[in-house]
Amino acid sequence: MITRFAPSTTGEAHPGTLLSALLVWLEARRRGGSAILRLEDLDVTRVKTGWADQLVDVCAELGLTWDATVLQSTLGAAHEAALDRLQAAGRLYPCACSRADRTGGRRAPDGGWAYDNTCRDRALAGGWRAQSEPVRLRLDDDRIELVDDGGLDLAQTPAHDMGDPIVRRRDGVIAYHLAVVVDDAAAAITDVIRGRDIAPSTATQVMIQRLLGLPTPRYRHHFLLLEADRTGKLSKLHASLPYSQLRTTRSPEDILGAIAHVAGLLDAPRPCRADELVLDWSRVPTADRDLPAGWLV
Questions:
Q1: Which candidate in 21, 34, 157, 267 could, as Cys together with 143 as Cys, close a disulfide (CB 3.0–4.6 Å)?
Q2: Which range marks the domain in which residue 47 is found?
Q3: 3-class DSSP state for residue 287?
Q4: pLDDT (tens digit, 9 = 90+) per residue, 169-207?
Q5: What is the maximum span of the chain, computed from C-alpha positions, in angstroms?
Q6: Residues 41 and 177 in one domain
């Protein structure tokens, strides 16, 4: 069993990040497997080196030790090789559509606007490296039937429900869907444990795995921590409770104990170490949870 914690390094660590890290680490420990920390730093417009360093330091403070740590930006050769294979198979095309072109169309399972595959017939003149426009991957129009380990139905026809995904952005950055598929296969990941916000992307990633002849890991999507007023998930985007703020009033053991309590691993919040905790998925909530008012303040 090999799993991974793969945060994007586009902001400070926060309770939602640490919840996922804890569940990944505990699942690997429970099953006698390995856990990799993969720092997803491809988005050069948003990442900062300091945030990657902070994630590593925070995990160490909480006692979450990894069998390997990988910077995604060092894996570019494998991403490019995958694009070359997809190009040779006639699967890539440039896309002239903007976000505004999709607005008001058909809703996708992730709540955004689905892409209607408008540019599918455009030729990839000069290959994917020569494109100044985003490059998309033409998916098969097949349905993916999949249920994750927590019983969440992930079935989709991704080419219709989400639309053909961008695999290389206009600025040259390799897009998330392709990178995560290639990186998981390269690391021989057998189990993916991640937040439910990523669940609508799973069918698209499974389709990409099939097109590249790569194995499909087992999936489990855990609950999310939400803002107390339910304005959205607790995330770096909202700058909610950054770890540096939490540490001004709480010890790492206090923070870990509070997260473990919210995750159903402790009957009451109390200071603890990671190696004291035992993961029992039957105790972990399945519904998203509000972050209680005044939590860790």
A1: 157
A2: 2-66+223-290
A3: coil
A4: 999 999 999 999 999 999 999 999 999 999 999 999 999
A5: 61
A6: no
